[in-house]
Write a structure and sequence with these properties.
globular; 177 residues; single chain; 0% helix; Immunoglobulin-like; 7-stranded mixed beta sheet; mainly beta
Length: 177
């Protein structure tokens, strides 16, 4: 009598051969940094940059619901590694704000200026509600002229669906027109 067994593995990949979107929750703000980059180093709060070139970038920390791990325990199984940017279905973000800690460009302390920041798809940060295809890094450009040399002192505030809040203060480079 001949006995054999089979194992069916269901891995979801997108059309480019990259792993499918992972379901995650945000558990922290990893880092906040600024563009433009100079000599492959992010702009610091001591630099002066044009408001046209300025970008507010941040990275969030995720906790995955899916802990699937394919290792060497499956004989004869290999996955080709392609250069894929991880994609996430973030389930617990309600809102992302940028709250001023100091007056900026005519706006008082406490103002949410997320409406002044837009992503590459021209979606303002205050209108961003769909996090089903998020990336590790978020990047937003500034959409207003600067009256004179100013520095943005604010806090990135991520409100979660359970009512909890993640907050990280930052100080941008000096911005000019």
């Amino acid at each position: 009598m001949l006995a054999s067994w089979a194992c069916t593995l269901s891995l979801d990949f997108d059309t480019e051969g990259c792993p499918s979107i992972r379901r995650v929750n945000v558990v922290g703000i990893e880092q906040i940094f600024f563009s433009p980059f100079m000599n492959q180093i992010a702009a610091s709060n001591a630099d002066t940059v044009s408001s046209r070139d300025f970008r507010l970038n941040f990275e969030l920390t995720y906790q995955s619901f899916q802990q699937a791990s394919l290792g060497s325990w499956i004989p004869g199984f290999a996955i080709a590694q392609v250069d894929c940017e991880p994609r996430f279905f973030v389930e617990n973000i309600s809102n992302i704000m940028v709250i001023l800690d100091q007056p900026f460009n005519g706006f008082p302390v406490g103002t949410d200026i997320a409406f002044l920041l837009s992503n590459n798809n021209d979606v303002q940060l205050n209108r961003l509600r769909d996090f089903r295809d998020s990336r590790q890094f978020f990047s937003f450009r500034f959409n207003q002229n600067i009256g004179n040399l100013q520095q943005l002192n604010a806090s990135l505030v991520v409100t979660l669906r359970d009512g909890s809040v993640l907050s990280e203060p930052f100080q941008s480079p000096f911005l000019t027109n």
